Amino acid sequence: NNIGRYDRLYGLISKYINIDGKFLDIGCATGDFLDYLYSKNIKNLSGIDPIKKYIDYAKKKAMYNVRLGMAELIPFSNKSFDVLVMDQVAEDVADIRKAIGEARRVLVDGGLFCVSVPDASRYSKKYFFDFFWFLIREHIQHFDLAHLKLLAESEGFELVAHDRSDAPMMSEK
What we know:
Blueprint lengths: L1 H12 L9 E4 L5 H8 L5 E5 L2 H8 L5 E4 L12 E7 L8 H11 E10 L15 H6 L7 H10 L19
Parallel strand pairs: 1-2, 1-4, 2-3, 4-5
């Protein structure tokens, strides 16, 4: 479930963040992770997503600033955020280098950029169900830790922490 994933994600970043900082969820969809952060008393929240229907839904909550946008063209000014989260989005981004450059642009110096992706180095270790390869094909980028780290470093980021977890791609049903 998403709450378990959000708990792990928050557990990883919580020691590096100030809850009064400005947060941006890149690929926020309907705002579920923003809701989670809000429940942790983080109030300065923003999100972007390229799907207007999701943004319209998230705007109804009125607890944060959500905008139509995409990772490769973030509709906020330079150095606007202390923390960026890109959870289960990078694998769907067409120009990942441009997206990471945009993250660098909108992040304050010394800010935190948290990226979570499926681990391509472990694809073969996963239980294969009939729908598995169909789901994987929808991803246009595939990462393992070493290559994600190299990509991030090439754009000026430094790895401060990482974690691996197993999360089901879909329920048993």
